Amino acid sequence: MDFNSREYYSSHSKLSFIGYHGQQKLKDAKVLVIGAGGLGCPCLLNLTTSGIGTIGIADFDIVSISNLHRQTLFTINDSGRLKTGAAIERLKSHNPETLFVNHSIIVGQDNVLDLIDPYDIVVDCTDNFLARYLINDACVYMDKPLVYGAIHQAEGHLTVFNYENSGTLRCLFPEPEHGAIQSCADIGAYNVTTALIGTMMANETLKIALENPNVLSGTLLTLDSLDGTFTKINYKKNNESLTESIKRFSENPALFVLSNEAFTSKLKNTSYQLIDVRTETEHDTFNLGGTNIPFDDLISGKVLDFDPKATAIFYCQQGFRSYEAVKFLRKLGFNKTFCLRGSMSNWINII
């Protein structure tokens, strides 16, 4: 069947806040959604069916059975597939006019700026607090509006950061103690809450694209799915927080982030200690060797089991924890600490 865009968007054309010109704004918009999970799935579906012209999807993970109750773009038959590919396949069946860009990558310090650069709006649908602060800092540095949503079991949070001089993630939530925030995989997730917040994230994204005056910036909306209540809390921009975000990318991470080439040329023939900062369970399941010092233990000061004058190289599953560990240690004077760039899969045949 031929796609008739006029008929497809006929309901939108009747709305005073969209109409023909608004629909054209949506078509011209370029949106990056980071995370194709419980929040990402409903958000992506609503952005697609609303007519966003270009949608980038960034996620490195594969579909698993335990995710399906809340990741509604996928079916049991998608188990084991990359989320980005499976999501794009499903979304194209809803709107063949939308251009989808597949970013099947781990978003990290070394690639986040290039990732968000082509897009007008960034939507954070991740479930990792280290990733959230990285994405926030990158959006501040690149001056991109950031749509933020999060859930904690049956409770949901929604706001828009860095929009028309509004506050940022660091202004609202100073970076928490490491390990203080658990993921949905650890504590569970109510699929109704993820569906509601993901859909509301799409709504904020559409309002930004439409230049609607009611964007939820400077206000955090909290939803309790069980008692049906909404609460709003206002917050303000904090210049110190902005400085902290910009500083992250003004500093030179090449001083301590090792690429394959840097490792081979600089440290391959140097004596060093290899340290895995993942959990004991992760380390026992598979590792690249070396000593296991869990990230939370390292940051809390429980374990500093290596010579501060010796060269130490840190790694983890995706590169977030090892990067934060080295930043932390270098502030304490451990100037010969380095972290491996990217995921463990990049290093299996090198270490």
TrEMBL record:
Q: Name one Pfam family in it.
A: ThiF
InterPro entries documented for this protein: Rhodanese-like_dom, Rhodanese-like_dom_sf, ThiF/MoeB/HesA, ThiF_NAD_FAD-bd, Ubiquitin-activating_enz
Listed GO CC annotations: cytosol
Ranges of residues in domain Rhodanese: 268-349
A GO molecular function assigned to this protein is: sulfotransferase activity
PANTHER family, alphabetized: ADENYLYLTRANSFERASE AND SULFURTRANSFERASE MOCS3, UBIQUITIN-ACTIVATING ENZYME E1
Protein's name in the database: Rhodanese domain-containing protein
The organism named in the record is Hufsiella arboris
